[in-house]
C-alpha cells in the first residue's frame, strides 16, 4: 500500500516538474511573439560587425620576425611559418606564412600573443568557397585588407541590436547619426576623464 502511494507521489512530482519546464519554454516563446521580426536582406544589406569581431586574419609580412609564437599558442598548431637563418644579419628571415581557415577556430590566441602585432583580425566573415583548399591562405592573400561594410556602395550597412538606440528594434529606420544604447570604449574613457577633473 505504501509503495503504491509512493509511486503516485513520485508521478505527481514529475508531472508538476514537467509542467514547470513546459511553462518556462512557452514563456520564452510568448515573449518573442510580441517582438517585431528583424530581417536582413543579405547580400544587399549586411550587419556591421561588432568592435571586437573575430573575422579573417590580416597578416603584415614586413613586421613578422618568424618567432613562431603564433604556432606555439595555437591550440591546433595551425600557422605554417617557413623561415631560414640569415648568416649576415644573424636573424631569422621569413619566407612564407600561411593559415588554413577551413581548420582555424578563430580563438584569437595568435593575435593576442604576437609580439610585433603583425597579425590582426578583420571584419571579413564571408569565407565561403567551393573548394576547401581555397581556404588555405598564404601571406599574400592574408595581406589584403577586406572592404569594410560601411564603405561598400553596393551594400546597405545595418547596425546590430547592440548598437541600436534604446527601445528601437528595427535597424532599417534608424538614421546613421542616432546614438546607440550603450557607450563606446572611447566614450567611457572620456566620461571617466571628465569625472576625474570634477
Describe what this molecule looks like in 3D.
There is one protein chain. With 198 residues, the protein is α+β, with helices and mostly antiparallel strands. Helices cover 30% and strands 16% of the residues. The strands form three sheets. It has a three-stranded antiparallel beta sheet. A hairpin with a 4-residue loop joins strand 3 and strand 4.
Topology:
Layout: H1 2-33, E1 45-47, E2 57-59, H2 69-73, E3 80-86, E4 91-100, H3 109-113, E5 119-121, E6 136-138, H4 139-143, E7 156-158, H5 185-197
Parallel strand pairs: 1-7
Antiparallel strand pairs: 2-5, 3-4, 4-6
Strand portion, in percent? 15-25%
**Ends apart, CA distance between termini:** 77 Å
Helix content: 25-40%
Structural class, from helix and strand content?
alpha+beta
Largest beta-sheet details: 3 strands, antiparallel
How would you briefly describe this protein structure?
The protein is α+β, with helices and mostly antiparallel strands. It is 30% helix and 16% strand.
Amino acid at each position: 500500500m505504501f509503495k503504491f502511494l509512493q509511486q503516485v507521489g513520485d508521478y505527481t512530482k514529475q508531472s508538476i516538474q514537467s509542467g514547470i519546464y513546459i511553462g518556462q519554454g512557452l514563456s520564452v516563446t510568448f515573449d518573442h511573439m510580441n517582438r517585431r521580426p528583424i530581417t536582413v536582406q543579405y547580400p544587399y544589406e549586411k550587419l556591421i560587425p561588432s568592435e571586437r569581431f573575430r573575422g579573417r586574419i590580416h597578416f603584415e609580412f614586413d613586421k613578422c620576425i618568424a618567432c613562431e609564437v603564433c604556432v606555439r599558442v595555437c591550440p591546433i598548431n595551425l600557422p605554417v611559418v617557413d623561415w631560414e637563418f640569415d648568416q649576415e644579419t644573424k636573424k631569422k628571415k621569413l619566407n612564407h606564412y600561411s593559415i588554413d581557415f577551413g581548420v582555424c577556430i578563430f580563438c584569437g590566441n595568435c593575435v593576442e600573443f604576437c609580439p610585433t602585432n603583425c597579425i590582426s583580425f578583420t571584419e571579413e566573415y564571408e569565407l565561403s568557397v567551393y573548394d576547401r583548399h581555397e581556404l588555405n591562405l598564404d601571406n599574400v592573400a592574408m595581406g589584403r585588407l577586406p572592404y569594410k561594410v560601411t564603405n561598400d556602395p553596393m551594400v546597405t550597412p545595418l547596425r546590430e541590436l547592440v548598437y541600436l538606440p534604446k527601445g528601437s528594434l528595427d535597424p532599417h529606420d534608424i538614421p546613421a547619426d542616432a546614438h546607440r544604447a550603450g557607450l563606446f570604449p572611447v566614450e567611457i574613457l572620456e566620461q571617466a576623464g571628465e569625472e576625474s577633473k570634477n
